[in-house]
Design a protein that fits this description.
Elements (H helix, E strand, L loop, with lengths): L19 H4 L4 H20 L8 E2 L1 H5 L3 H12 L4 E2 L2 H15 L6 E7 L4 E7 L2 E8 L3 H8 L7 H18 L11 E5 L1 H10 L7 H4 L3 E3 H12 L3 H4 L13 H15 L3 E5 L3 H13 L2
Parallel strand pairs: 1-2, 3-6, 6-8
Antiparallel strand pairs: 3-4, 4-5, 7-8
Helix pairs in contact: 2-4, 5-13, 6-12, 7-12, 8-12, 10-12
Length: 288
């Protein structure tokens, strides 16, 4: 397919999975926030003359006991059905989007996508999907359990880090064991935020973030800086939205643990990911 360019893009962190880890279902306040935001996005799309609107849900919805209630409420408000993607499908779509933005990358790569309720790991060889796995390891439940709204003590961070590394070792056992990938690529909010912070951007610039190479030592330095601040102070940093201020700590921990698990000292940042993969797949299917 040919190249395409966004006419408008925005994001709102609604924290749909808030409390999901302990309750097993979506909370009323979280659902209301998300439905309001989705409805606003649909109205914006219509004002921009969008001919089609796609609504896609991932881990928080697929893991919730009351998912059907949420899906029905979204459809009543928007008039549109929600597509719930399984974890492995989410991984495949994230790879599709990332490869679109990294046209020059060849050989094998390991893509990781750190989300609120899950993290996806995708192995590709010569730009073809070789293996994918989705782990129920997300930043929201970690942030809730380890109270990352306050400055992070060494002891509390170490406890969280041990859990993350243990779950990666178990969940990724045998994954990509046969060969070390040539490249490690990260997508989604944690790594793009870290890239923006490392670049010292005063306003988020996707063109500068795309393809940026984050070094492990710089990630550690950023972690030390962020962990020393309460979430309210982190939220005042450029390119770190308030909704990400508490989850950036566990997200960074997952990033570092992933780098160590696969033996990398740097990670290529992809601004392109799941969202672009969904769009590319849909447009490709619509072409004659």
């Amino acid at each position: 397919m040919g190249r395409w360019f966004p006419l408008h893009q925005t994001q709102t962190i609604t924290r749909l999975g808030e409390g999901l880890g302990s309750a097993g279902q979506l909370g009323e306040a979280a659902m209301a926030r998300t439905i309001t935001t989705v409805s606003q996005f649909c109205r914006t799309a219509k004002t921009l003359a969008a001919e089609e609107v796609l609504i896609v849900a991932t881990s928080a919805v697929r893991d919730a006991r009351n998912r059907q209630d949420f899906l029905e409420r979204v459809q009543r408000v928007t008039g549109l059905a929600v597509r719930v993607v399984p974890g492995e499908e989410e991984a495949r779509l994230a790879l599709l989007g990332a490869l679109y933005g990294l046209a020059a990358v060849s050989g094998s790569l390991l893509l990781f996508d750190i989300g609120g309720g899950s993290s996806e790991f995708i192995l590709a060889r010569e730009r073809q999907l070789a293996a994918a796995i989705s782990l129920r390891l997300g930043v929201v439940s970690l942030a809730e359990r380890y109270t990352t709204t306050e400055p992070m003590t060494r002891a509390r961070y170490a406890e969280m880090d041990r859990e993350i590394r243990s779950r990666l070792a178990t969940g990724l056992a045998g994954f990509s064991r046969d060969a070390r990938p040539d490249h490690l690529v990260g997508t989604a909010g944690t790594v793009t935020t870290l890239a923006a912070l490392d670049l010292e951007l005063q306003a988020y610039d996707p063109d500068r973030v795309q393809g940026y190479v984050l070094q492990r030592r710089r990630i550690e330095q950023l972690l030390a800086r962020l962990a020393a601040l309460p979430a309210a102070a982190r939220a005042e940093l450029p390119c770190l939205p308030p909704g990400r201020a508490d989850v950036i700590i566990p997200g960074t921990a997952i990033c570092l643990a992933t780098m160590d698990h696969f033996g990398f000292q740097s990670v290529i940042v992809s601004e392109f990911g799941l969202r672009e993969g969904i769009l590319i797949e849909h447009v490709s299917r619509s072409l004659p």
